[in-house]
Sequence to fold (263 residues):
Amino acid sequence: MGPNMPEADEPESRTAPIQIGAAGQALAVGQARAGRTRRPSAAVAIHAHLRDQIVQLVRIPGEPINEREIAALFGVSRTPVREALLQLASEGLIAMVPQVGTFVARIPANRLPEAVLVRQALEEATARLAAERGAAVDFAGMEAAIDRQVRATEREAIEEFHIADEAFHAAIAAASGYPGIWRLVRRAKLQLDRYRRTTLPQAGRLPKVIEQHRAIMDAIARHDPDEAALRMRAHVGALVADLAVIRALRPDWFTDISEEAGP
Fold:
């Protein structure tokens, strides 16, 4: 092998085909807006793609991860796949078991209440601030998100409903004057998002969420900070109300993790 030839397991060439999910596309757009036009590296794209699939339950908890298949899908060597898997493992989404294999991590049920508390604290603040801003608040984003949720419910489009749900909460953060708070919330609720997708197919769940969203928006529109914060707290807190029931339905999807065990 000549001195200018790459090793067999070096990162792929710039012409290698890269497929990315929604998170990877968002990253690419963000880089372009920042003046960086280079596409994401293979490891970044693979991480975003797998992260989307795991959070959306396309890859279910406990499912084996095959490095070779992922490398073939992206047309790359296994090096960027390993890099992506290590990052996902640090986020608690992948479990690497020595001498056994790599799997989608099970949902840590005992850590969900803590994630809810973090989300409640942050989103109560945005709801309160949005209500306090009064006339400065633009309700178009909130209303559009609720309309999308209504249409998604009619079509039983669960993933579309979830995307609109995210848009609603992001719109409140924007209305508060502190849109960056939503980025903090998103980082804190990875495991919560996986759990949420197990609850949305429940009968009557989608209309109930829409009703809660409308109550939050109405309180903001009335410039009632206390009511807006209260409604948001109840809405977010309801996420774990059915945890025992959901866990009983999908016991193999959940686990309990000790603090010593790490992410």
